[in-house]
Amino acid sequence: MQVEGKKVLVTGASQGIGAEAAFRFAAHGAHVHLVARSAELLDLQVKRIKEFGGSATAHQADLADAEQIRALAQDVPAPDVLVNNAGVGRWLFLDDTSSDELVTMTAVPYMAALLLTREYLGAMRSRGSGWIVNVNSPVSRLPIPGCVGYQSARWALRGLTASLRLDLRGTGVGVSEVVPGKVSSEYFNNNPGAEERIPAIARMIPTVTPQQCAKAIVDAVEKERAEHLFPWQLKAFEISGRLFPGLTSYLTWKTGTHR
């Protein structure tokens, strides 16, 4: 799908991966709808895009709230491209996580992607075109210790992606899953202690930038890629996990977080 002239909606677009993806789509000639909780940060990103000559609109919404998701869908008709990028959650042992925080981790990214996609799916299917991108985490492939709530939601997002891909086959609506390794974004600053829980063996995977993630997202749409894990070292670990699950799980546990 060529994105020039298309309407693109990006969630979690106030900073990091989402902000860079919105900027790159706009640079490719799309009109971008940026969604996030912070109106102030959204306005900065919209200003940045417009100063570059792009077209963008900000929409403040908390996607952990189903009512706000419905309101957003009424405000913004079905886009050509939907990028489900919003995500929150600290890396904690299950019994160290409050029930409220577990609900929030499930609400975003999983329920937000599930409900927002549902709002737009009928219109996309009716017109026979559209593309959905779910931005996921490596822990959706390679579980690590001390991260139960967060990675459970990420596995659910992976299941949503796979299910949608089967349901939408032959309809003209495509689905991509983009899975970067560790990203040099604000996530680890916003979630203190998470970075220290990355297993030592996984630290062999190079860190990628939000700009690299944005390129992967736009490329996934333009090249209609079903899945993109990067960098290649992450893909190698993912293959290792499928071929040698016991060994990979042991090494992840051995070099990971322990009480």
Counting structural domains, the number is 1
Helix content: 40-55%
CATH secondary-structure class:
Alpha Beta
- Per CATH, the superfamily is NAD(P)-binding Rossmann-like Domain
How many H/I helices? Answer: 9
The appropriate CATH architecture is 3-Layer(aba) Sandwich
Structural class: alpha/beta
Distance between the termini: 48 Å
Q: Strand content of the residues, in percent?
A: 15-25%
SSE order, one letter for each helix or strand: EHEHEHEHEHEHHEHH
Which residues sit in consecutive blocks of at least 5 with pLDDT less than 50?
none
Q: Largest beta sheet, briefly?
A: 7 strands, parallel
Average pLDDT, rounded to a whole number, is 96
CATH fold-level name: Rossmann fold
Number of extended strands: 7
* Rg measurement, Å: 18 Å
Shape descriptor: globular
Strand order of the largest sheet: 3-2-1-4-5-6-7
Task: Walk me through what this model shows.
This protein is an alpha/beta fold and 259 residues long. The chain has one domain: Rossmann fold. Helix content is 47%, strand content 15%. It is built from nine helices and seven strands, in the order E-H-E-H-E-H-E-H-E-H-E-H-H-E-H-H. It has helices at residues 16-27, 39-51, 66-75, 99-127, 148-167, 187-190, 210-222, 232-243, 245-254, and strands at residues 7-11, 31-36, 55-60, 81-84, 130-135, 173-180, 227-230. The protein has a seven-stranded parallel β-sheet, sandwiched between helices. Strand 5, helix 5 and strand 6 form a beta-alpha-beta unit. Helix 1 (16-27) crosses helix 7 (210-222). The mean pLDDT is 96.
